[in-house]
Amino acid sequence: MNVCFCYTPFPYNQFMQSRSRTIVALFAVAALVGGVCFLTMRDNQVEQVVPQAAPLPTPTSQATLIKLKQLGARWKRNQHGQVNWLDLKHLPIADDDLVILQELPEVRFVHLRAIQRAKGNHFTNAGLRHLLCLKKLEALDLSANHHLTSECFETLKQLKGLKSLNLEYTSFAEADLPELCQLKSLEILHVPQLPLNGTTIGYFEQMPLRELWGISNRNSDYTFQFLPRLTHLEKLLFQADVYVKDTDLVYLRHLKKIKTLKVVLTKGFRDTSQLKQLQDLRELEYLSLGQKEVFVDSFDNSGLLALAKLPALKKIEAARVDDRYLEAISHCAQLTELDLTGYGNQITPEGLTCLKNMRSLKSIDLERPLARHKTFEALGQVPSLERIALSGWVWRYRGKSPPPVGNAPLFEMSSLKHLQQMPHLKELKLDYLDLTDEALKHIGECKTLEGLSLINSNITNAGLLQLRDLAHLKNLDLTGSKIDLEAAYQLHQFIPDCVIEDIWFAGGGKMPPFLTDLQEWKTFRRKLHYELD
């Protein structure tokens, strides 16, 4: 029997190719589905991560501003149009008037100095309770409110965010310190003639005080012993502006953060040796030096020379200075400010030549008797100067000839040509110096000027336009001069960004006849009359 086997080959290759295509298709579908899921999940996550935009801060309403105007208040606003600085000083404020504070949640600074007690007006401790709604309040001025009682500290102690408090000329007393020291953020404190002793120091050191004003030092030796315990202290001012005696400086050596100090030299400017005690105060920035009228044969400037080693010292204010004393100060090459307007100064224009060694000096204050040709010649040798103030409305001199009277100038106007040697000069104050139009010609060449004060000068309308090229000028004070409003307007056309100050608006500020456009007049008036808001 013959059996036949019939063999039909299996299409393996075709099967595998078909299977591969199926697998690839499945992978493609899976990838597509996975991608869609991933994108969906990512969009959901993005929606969850990105928060909704915060609502824009709401500006102080116009209705509230009208109420403030009715009270006579002044204010400033932040970039969002919210009142954050409020000045109510010297106003006849009653307790109920302060209810308006509830509409000013962004206020950080409040000035309530010397609130008037007019007929029918009552400003008491009850009014202060309205301050509690100011959750961001940082600075409060209650000075010169004698009628406020100790009850007000029940309210003040609740202002936990308060950093600055002024209580000068109030009924604040030593017994109120336990309440006050609960302000754990207080950094600046003004008090009325309070002693520093074994009891009060314990309260003061519970606050992180950087500035302490008004401490009484009737017994200075006893007072200064406690100062090292105020480790945060940067500024210290005693009652009635009493200076620290140089013999007490030994107690201040441990106040490493002190930045401002006023010292009286007990042996006069002939002996400054005690100033060497300040060598450890590496953060000292401002030093005021007064002197007693003590005549000592020897001359010791070692203390002044030691000041040159204080890297942070930037300003010295000195009284009863003579040329020899000034020469010693000039060794402080790090100084940027020098104030020589103190009582009894005996500096000569020739003595100012030592300033040429002070290559960092940017600001100097001098008095009217020094308005001489050689003074400006000496200042011209200090090219770093940015500010010069030479004023003489009060003449404080002793043993000197009184200043000239009448129309005779103190110096030749051509002396001001030396100002052109100062390429960085920005501010110039030449008040009560009988300046003429010739002076304006030289001042007009100081192209870098931003501020200029010419109070009670003899300049004229015709000469004023010599300032027209001062393109950077931002403020010009012509108070007491004979400049007419029309001349000021003409200058304003050349320098539209300059605020020009005088007393033109004493008569009501009506639009002058030389202007016909009301809007132009309003714009010009705003440049003349500075408004806080």
Automatic annotation (TrEMBL):
Gene3D superfamilies, per the entry: Ribonuclease Inhibitor
Alphabetized UniProt keyword annotations: Membrane, Transmembrane, Transmembrane helix
Domain of life: Bacteria
Keyword Transmembrane helix (UniProt): yes
InterPro entries hit by this protein: LRR_dom_sf
Gene Ontology CC, one term: SCF ubiquitin ligase complex
Transmembrane portions of the chain: 23-41
Keyword GTP-binding set for record: no
An annotated GO BP: SCF-dependent proteasomal ubiquitin-dependent protein catabolic process
Protein name: Leucine Rich repeats (2 copies)
